[in-house]
Design brief:
- The chain is mainly α and 91 residues long.
- It has a domain of 35 residues.
- The chain is elongated, with a radius of gyration of 33 Å.
């Protein structure tokens, strides 16, 4: 059985080649900075995602509060609509 690293469809050799190219292009000193920035970005993304999920769950648990504008717009129908036979005079 052939084991390959399935990172974006790259095998082990291709992954080593990509990592070597990144090391050559950016240098060994800048890679930790990139990793630190990437880690902070992922951490902030998870925090924002958690905050949105918590806010959504809180909003779903609160009972809806009736707004005064909504109550004024919705009026119960107390009158029945006129039928065509009631509006036509009989001769």
């Amino acid at each position: 059985m052939h084991i390959s690293l399935a990172v974006l469809g790259l095998s082990g050799g291709e992954l080593v080649l990509v990592l070597a190219a990144i090391l050559i292009l950016f240098g060994a000193k800048r890679i930790p900075e990139f990793a630190k920035g990437l880690g902070q970005g992922i951490r902030e993304f998870k925090k924002a995602s958690r905050d949105v999920t918590d806010e959504f769950n809180t909003a779903m648990q609160e009972p809806p509060s009736p707004s005064p504008n909504r109550q004024q717009q919705i009026k119960p129908a107390t009158e029945t609509p006129a039928t065509p036979s009631a509006t036509v005079p009989k001769t």
